[in-house]
Amino acid sequence: MKHNFRRTIRCTVLLMTAVLAVLAARPDAAAAAGSAGGVQNNAGSTGKLSGIKEIVASSGFWGGSSFALRQDGSVWVWGSNVFGQFAKGTASPEGWTVTPQRIATLDGTRQLVIGYGFYAALSRDGTVKAWGGRLLEQSGTAEGGTRVSTPQPIAGMNGIVKLAARDGGLLALRSDGKLMNWEVPAADGSYVAGVPAASEVPGITDVKDIASGGAFHAALRSNGTLWLWADEDQGAGRLLRTKPAQIPNLYYVKSFVLDGRSLVALTESGSVWATTGIDYEHFLPQAVKKMSKLSGIVSIETKESLNLARSAKGDTWVWESETDQRSLQKITAVPQMARVSLIPDGMIIVQKNGTSWNVGREWAGEKLTFKRPWQIKGLLNPVSFASGENSKYAVLKDGTAVAWGTNMFGQLGINTPESRPFTASPIMKPVSLKVDGRSVESEQSSILLEGRVMVPVRAFAESLGYTVSWDNGIKLERNGRTVRIEGGQLSVDGKTVPLTPAPLKVSYTQLVPAGPLAAALGAAAKWDSANYELTISPMTAGQ
Predict the structure, then answer these.
(1) Which residue from 30, 304, 319, 542 has the highest number of Cβ atoms inside 10 Å of its Cβ?
(2) One digit per residue, pLDDT tens: the chain, 543 residues?
(3) Could you give the C-alpha distances from 133 to 166, 172, 397, in angstroms and in order?
């Protein structure tokens, strides 16, 4: 009994000594952050999500969807989980995150697709998995129940080399040149057992590339012909029928691009063909014609309302989609151009020195005009772009990525819920948290913010055996010890510690600086900046 009493007294003294040390010392002396200089010096390199192959994003309510596909085949997701984007078994408007988290079940992914009411991943072994969106209705009952979202294999999808999202499903290209079609369950509130199987697309073989504009689809055959078809037959004399048909008079197609209702094709000779005229009753193109004013073209692009073509001479031309060439114009808005890429509201021009400029489309008036260019701060040497819900992303030459725009639901992935409309900020990776040798997981992971490690209070405290409750603030209790977090301060037995940075709330997760919290809970912390890992060890009587 006396031994236990002396040990309790000693642990209490150790705890108070640690807390007083935090109170007396400068804020950056917190154990979990290591030396301030060490963390800050390494954050720029180790803190960024690296090795990124592609950012895949889409707009939508609750922040849309944001994913990163890395070169190693791993898939990372952040932002909203309202449609089960996280693929972890649940879907909810709660639990959104500001930091990418890895979807371990999708390791080995070759291509990632955001469909119309679902998400899909093509594996390196040629199989395909789908999850989320309408597939949430595949479990539970009509009266309710858990809305699950775990990736499920699609039967019949084997030997697949490329996917294209179409209205309500997928178009898939097999390694033998045949096509497969998959339909996602109808959005009628029904509950169906399992994921529907795929079926072969009849009437076309020897395909080497595919794309879908949603309601209509395109396939490039090995003989250089381009074939189109739609989900619904538009009648005799129309461009699109329900069975694949060759575009008349178009041969030796080298490549093509498709977005919405706009299709642009590039031939081996450098000529360009594009859709002109729209059937506004069905929102489908009426014709594909040669753009006679363009020649010697080496690359093409289309994005929503604009088409782009770059010549072998280095000239870049833009014109309005779904029209003839009356709006065709050479891009000269920024000098020393290295490349031009289309984005939903205009284009981004990258100069030879890597500096990037946004050139928005001017919608006033009938003529195609553009706004004055403005520089995107923080965006240097981008190689590809993606757009989400009022947010934009760019993969950089070094394999990292940046984001800018609206960030209401963490869709930028930059370790903060703050929006960055005019400045591109790095997409960050999570801090690995280990307590007593065990990995600690939370909806919002630990992050590095302003050179300090911020940890999720509940997950951190519960891993050390504390109970967490709310009593005019957060209350942590264990063996008679009580720690409170309220109003940007932490208190233990009447002693108060100011928290710097201030506590950060992400969705329903509260994060606080790791150093003061670890000391208050009687734990020692070690920060490994090279591996971006924080290790917590409960202190013993001898420490």
Answers:
(1) 30
(2) 433 433 343 444 334 333 333 333 333 333 334 432 222 333 445 799 999 999 999 998 888 899 999 999 999 999 999 889 999 877 888 889 999 999 999 999 999 999 988 999 999 999 999 998 888 765 544 444 445 478 999 999 999 999 999 988 999 999 999 999 999 887 665 556 678 899 999 999 999 999 998 788 999 999 999 999 988 766 555 677 788 999 989 999 999 999 987 899 999 999 999 998 766 555 567 789 999 999 999 999 999 889 999 999 999 999 999 888 999 999 999 999 999 999 998 999 999 999 999 999 999 888 999 999 999 999 999 999 999 999 999 999 999 999 999 999 999 999 999 999 999 999 999 999 999 899 999 989 999 998 899 999 999 999 999 999 998 899 999 998 999 999 899 999 888 989 999 999 999 899 999 999 999 999 999 999 999 999 999 875 444
(3) 14, 19, 33
CA separation for the pair 425, 377 (Å, rounded):
9
Domain boundaries, the chain: 2-45+432-538
Biggest alpha carbon distance in the chain?
Answer: 98
Instruction: Name the region of 375 (left: φ>0; alpha: ψ -120 to 50; beta: rest).
Output: beta
Which of the 8 DSSP states describes residue 195? P
Q: How many CB atoms lie within 10 A of CB 401?
A: 26
pTM: 0.88
Q: How far is CA 389 from CA 56, 91, 182, in A?
A: 12, 19, 26
Residue in the structure block whose two tokens are 């992935």: 413
Q: How far is CA 128 from the centre of its chain?
A: 19
C-alpha closest to that of 335 among 364, 321, 355: 355
| Tokens representing residue 527 in the block | 């920060």
Angle at 361 between CA 343 and CA 307, to 5 degrees: 55
Give the Å distances, CA to CA, from 148 to 91, 193, 350, 415: 7, 13, 42, 27
Distance CA 534, CA 399 (A): 25
> 2-45+432-538: CATH homologous superfamily?
Copper amine oxidase-like, N-terminal domain (3.30.457.10)
Residue type, 478: R
User: How would you classify the pairing of strands 119-123 and 128-131?
Assistant: antiparallel
Alpha-carbon span 99 to 148, nearest angstrom:
22
Give the integer Cα–Cα distance in Å for 495 and 20: 8
Which residues, 6+ apart, have CB-to-CB distance to 325 below 8 Å?
291, 292, 293, 294, 319
* Neighbour-count burial of 462, counting CB atoms closer than 10 A to its CB (0-12 exposed, 13-18 middle, 19+ buried): middle
